[in-house]
Recover the amino acids of this structure.
């Protein structure tokens, strides 16, 4: 039976695990993924890395294995960090395959659905965009440029004023529509219906602003919006991470007060680290210390973070040591999920802040 979704008067055929058969078959079993997988390093178990995942999933598609709690545990353990995909000679998209495999489990298990329901309820109610009502006004009426800002869940909690202040200072007006969650957390947990619902909500609002570039500050939101664009090519979504936008327009800042020393954690979903590095190195009164393994996953993996606490804590310990060895007392990042993980594991030894918020708070 075809899995269909109706988005904006258009029917989409939702992909299923069996549609990834040829990708799964292209795994040569070379085992290179083992050398970069943070989970494999902790468990030493082939079932927790791409190669082992694909052996299991191949049998699942062929009907020789049945989806079980054990397979689901192996799927949940994957951080979806893409370290293996970036290294894989066959270029297999592990995040898509694991998410579609999770969808097979999700369909048949009420506990997963309940978790999604609670997550949606929380997202619906956090902040209720209260902060936006008071804080996202543009400062003047004459701007050279105009962009639309997609803030996702973090803007419900923290408002949009930092992005407005930052871009206004560079003569850019910011439109802040009432966008909802990007839906990526649901996609990664296999709740594809919810992911498509969020895509539908996005397009309903987006059509009013389709003449403008969309900028986002969150690496995960950017990934989700690019997936929306992939699904609906004729909409010509023009999505940019704010850092790409700043670099392209040669826009940088000067901070007030004493020179600040910071380091940066690269979220797994971020593709444009070079743009961020450019910004950090071109911001006056800021000293950027690149930490060792700045691009290694922070260990946040949704539900696994709570279920597999010990493994995740071990992964985080390396991140903690690398942050401490920079001697910077502030870690910046550009993903809401990473901020949460870095804060939970900071032991009050350093501050964690969103990069755009940090700059907006400190500009002259
Ligand atoms: S690196 Fe790629 S091709 Fe090699 S075993 Fe891992 S998933 Fe398969
Ligand atoms: S996405 Fe990350 S955690 Fe998952 S198998 Fe690949 S390297 Fe390991």
């Amino acid at each position: 039976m075809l899995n269909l979704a109706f988005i904006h008067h258009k029917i989409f055929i939702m992909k299923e695990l069996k549609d990834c058969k040829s990708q799964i078959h292209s795994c040569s079993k070379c085992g290179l993924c083992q050398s970069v997988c943070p989970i494999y390093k902790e468990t030493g178990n082939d079932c927790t890395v791409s190669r082992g995942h694909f052996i299991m999933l191949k049998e699942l598609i062929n009907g020789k294995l049945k989806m079980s709690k054990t397979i689901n545990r192996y799927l949940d353990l994957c951080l979806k960090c893409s370290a293996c995909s970036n290294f894989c000679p066959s270029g297999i998209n592990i995040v898509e395959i694991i998410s579609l495999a999770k969808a097979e489990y999700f369909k048949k298990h009420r506990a997963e659905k309940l978790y999604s329901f609670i997550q949606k309820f929380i997202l619906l109610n956090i902040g209720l965009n209260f902060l936006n009502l008071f804080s996202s006004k543009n400062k003047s009426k004459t701007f050279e440029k105009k962009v639309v800002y997609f803030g996702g869940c973090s803007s419900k909690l923290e408002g949009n004023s930092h992005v407005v202040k930052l871009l206004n200072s560079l003569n850019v007006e910011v439109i802040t529509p009432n966008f909802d969650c990007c839906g990526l957390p649901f996609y990664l947990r296999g709740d594809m219906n919810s992911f498509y619902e969020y895509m539908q909500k996005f397009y309903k609002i987006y059509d009013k602003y389709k003449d403008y570039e969309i900028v986002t500050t969150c690496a995960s939101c950017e990934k989700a919006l690019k997936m929306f664009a992939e699904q609906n090519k004729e909409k010509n979504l023009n999505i940019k991470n704010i850092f790409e936008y700043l670099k392209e327009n040669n826009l940088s800042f000067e901070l007030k007060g004493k020179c600040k020393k910071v380091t940066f954690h690269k979220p797994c979903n971020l593709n444009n680290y070079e743009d961020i590095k450019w910004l950090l190195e071109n911001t006056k009164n800021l000293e950027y210390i690149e930490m060792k393994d700045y691009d290694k996953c922070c260990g946040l993996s949704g539900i696994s973070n709570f279920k597999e606490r010990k493994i995740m804590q071990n992964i985080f310990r390396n991140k903690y040591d690398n942050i401490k060895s920079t001697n910077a007392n502030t870690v910046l990042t550009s993903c809401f999920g990473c901020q949460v993980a870095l804060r939970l594991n900071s032991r009050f030894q350093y501050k964690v802040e969103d990069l755009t918020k940090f700059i907006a708070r400190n500009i002259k």
